[in-house]
Give the backbone structure.
Amino acid sequence: MKIHIRIKNFISRHLSPTRIFVLSFAAVILTGGILLRFPFSAAKGPLAFVDALFTSTSAVCVTGLVVIDTGKDLSVAGQVITMLLIQVGGLGIITFSTVFFVLMGRGISFKGREIVQSTFLHTPRRDFLVIAKSVILFTFITESIGALLLFIRFFQDFPFNRALYQAIYHSISAFNNAGFSLFSDNLMGYQGDLIVNLTIMGLIVHGGIGFIVQYEVLSWFRGIQQRVSVHTKIVLITTALLIISGALFFYLFERNHILRGTPILTNLLTCLFQSVTPRTAGFNTVDIGALMNPTILLIIILMFIGASPGSTGGGVKTTSGALLGLLIWNRIKGNEEVNVFNRTIPREIIGRTISIIFASAFSVAIIWSVLLIAGGNLGPAESRHFFVEYLFETVSAFGTVGLSMGITPKLNDLQKYALILMMFVGRVGPLTLAFSLSRTRGRKGLTYAEEGVMAG
């Protein structure tokens, strides 16, 4: 009995909500890697451990980077495993556990309550359990509608059973912003298809704007609440601006290149699709490696920004990009505070936003450096193109996007492990990971006499 109490006290003392959040993802990734390593998960031969772990990490972190052909190298069992990993990773294992315990009539701990609230909510709410249940319900309904629409289209190309399976897999992958596809060319075969493009884009946007935004908008439409929060307004406006501006710039950069000679409808769908998907989804209807350099830069920026907080996506988040822009705009106007929509954003949130952006950029720089150093000793002429390709791959892993310029399967083991770490950091967040490893989190540091330093 004493041993049981000691173990319980040790767990309570050392497993903070942040550490539980990080460890839950690590445990699911490792479990998925072991399952994918078994022979029944492979269609040809057992996967190497690094490839199984890479695929599991990519699925749980809803990234979509692959070192194998998911549709050909994995058996149906292996594909179903990745689909389940995507679903669990997109919503979070803690969320599933919490809702399950509530449905079973069991209570949840304070730590579980804190994790769920920090996952989906910008401010604590008493009705967070109602929101958590609605998240699961909304996910099921949205994925079902998406699967139905995709089935209607895929049924024209495949037998009933295969069309249904393809539709379910791609619907789950799209809503969770994973980017996994059972087609070897991803969705390039459906570049001009109206149903596939609109359905996938709709699922990506719905999964990427954040569950609290979905909940508030639906509550506003139903008249349950009178106004939406500043958070929701920022997310919706920033998302719309990024989609529209991204599509416009994609067209300007590629109109005389990859879009030349294609029909107007195909051009419109291609531009919109490649503006939506870099925001952490990873599907593609064009060859990313064949794009112009300005377009590659555009996609890198969109991947780094990513989706919105409390969603299935990664990146520094739309709110971080918006708050940084608002900070600069308010400073130009001479305001000490960041004001928007007749509200003042707390300085603590602004400071955290800046920390997240710089920590993310620093993480990307480190992993990018590892890829470059571990890439071999080729001469400058033979290896110069890797400079951009490795940067693209690293940002894609950090933003849990999954877009690739085609070099992922060619990486060596050390580079694969580096990207595994990058995907994990991108999913849980660099600051969250740092806090989970810190022993002094929550303690106030010493304060000394102030002294100025020149800045700028």
